[in-house]
Amino acid sequence: MQPTPAKEEVKRLLDTLPDDASFEDIQYHLFVRQKLDKGLKEIEDGNTLTQEEVEERMARWLTP
Question: C-alpha distances in angstroms, 57 versus 16, 35, 38?
Fold first, then answer.
């Protein structure tokens, strides 16, 4: 039975961390990897905003 791609990715991640990495360090790196993967998938699916759309949204946030 072959390991899943996620399991292989975690193994590679663990190999890149220092031997004294804490559980918190590992959890943080897994969290960041998960968020990056999600963002890349969003881009691949075309779920992005133009610069103009971002500026319009931010203007609404910053306007009292």
Answer: 38, 22, 21
